[in-house]
Specification:
Layout (H helix, E strand, L loop, with lengths): L7 E4 L5 H12 L3 E6 L2 H13 L3 E6 L5 H15 L4 E4 L14 H29 L3 E6 L11 H21 L4 E7 L5 H5 L4 H5 L16 H8 L10 E5 L2 E5 L15 H10 L18
Parallel strand pairs: 1-2, 1-4, 2-3, 4-5, 5-6, 6-7
Antiparallel strand pairs: 7-8
Helix pairs in contact: 1-8, 3-4, 4-5
Length: about 290
Amino acid sequence: MKSLAGKAVVITGAGSGLGAAYARHAAALGASIVVNDIGAPAAQATVDAIVASGGTAVAHAGDISSWSYAQSLVDACIDAFGAITGIVNNAGILRIGKILDLTEADLRRMIEINLIGTAACASHAARRMLAAGKGGSIVNVASGSQAGDVALGGYGATKGGVASLTYSWAMELRGSGVRVNALSPLAETAMAAQNKALMAEQAASREVHYATLPDPESNAPVVSFLLSDAAEKINGQVVRIAGKQLSFVTHPLIADPVVEGNWSFETVNAAFADTLIGQQQPLGLGYARKPN
């Protein structure tokens, strides 16, 4: 029996790139897929590829930043397949801009699609999953840029927001059978191509540098796993997949040392001068190493 047989899954932004790879992989494992994209031809192209390979899929084009459209997208999965057991909130956009260059329009649109769109689709999916009483899996898409990156502050802020939503929703739905996780992918995509001119500058803030990026398909097995019953004990996590590396991304933590005291300006000044100045956290995405 295929790992995702009987699953009915919505995948947003699945007309190309990572979303299309997720859709094709999940369908090959037996899931029935609703392929969303802002453009109907792109969504239909992914559906055609799935059907040609023997899978089951339908297209549903629209803008997930609309709360009402998000509801119709989730309902379309139930209408087509009788249920919704999973959703992958993959749709997103990237607008590059350093602090002096970022425009209001670009920031607002990233918030609308990356953050509000994720929230809209997840909220409607969770309602239907809870009403059905059979559990389900919500997979959001975060990014290593949530830790900060040159000219990706606005984009990273939306992805940091997605991570925070993931943690909160996992807490709220704990014990319901509906689990919420996020994926931090890495791949050669049209979005990545937008950023290539800045990669050398960004590399200075990264522990790991990538000469080439992996194919979108290398990320897809992680998504299919998170949608499957095999992941029933995984909840509230950001899973990082970067080529041959698979890991969790740590949740925000209170860093040692914690200095105790009664705080005035003078004692705060002393605490930083004596202890905290040497304990500043590194910029960018790094590794939380276990002590030897």
